[in-house]
Amino acid sequence: QVQLVESGGGLVQPGGSLRLSCAASGFNLAYATIGWFRQAPGKEREGVSCIGRRGDTMDYAESVKGRVTISRDNAKNIVYLQMNNLEPEDTAVYYCAADPIRWCSGSMAYWGKGTLVTVSS
Q1: Other CB atoms within 10 A of residue 91 CB
Q2: pLDDT one digit per residue (tens) for the chain, 121 residues
């Protein structure tokens, strides 16, 4: 059974940093494109970042460019999302998703249950 588990969320002050992790079981992330998405209260889910299987292709939403870095450690079967200079507008539940075929989209095959990030003073 494939499971994706996000961790690393929490409460952080504006300007602070968090590193989210997405760990997989029952599935080798090395064979998948991995995406991070978020859903803020009252808003639709949106894509944050995406990384290809070899880690040499990455994409970022305009709203997070320059503040967020996606990376992957295929040996550990984990993908990370380093978020710096966080803003209140980054408050959301963050989800990771994986797909062995598709690039990042809302139709990816596997999804985690999310981790809550709250940016507030």
Answers
A1: 17
A2: 899 999 999 999 999 999 999 999 998 999 999 999 999 999 999 999 999 988 788 899 999 999 999 999 989 999 999 999 999 999 999 999 999 999 999 999 999 999 999 999 9
* DSSP-assigned beta bridge partners for residue 38: 46, 94
Size (the chain), residues: 121
Tell me how far CA of residue 44 lies from CA of 4, 37, 92, 113, in angstroms.
21, 10, 11, 16
If we measure between CA atoms, which residue out of 84, 54, 86 comes closest to residue 71? 54
In which element (H, E) is residue 25 found? strand 18-25
Give me the numbers of helices (H) and strands (E) for the chain, helices first please: 0, 11
Order of strands, sheet of 78-83, starting from the edge strand that comes earlier in the sequence = 3-7, 18-25, 78-83, 68-73
Burial-class residue 90 by CB neighbours within 10 Å (0-12, 13-18, 19+): buried
Closest CA relative to residue 97, chosen from 11, 48, 42, 35: 35
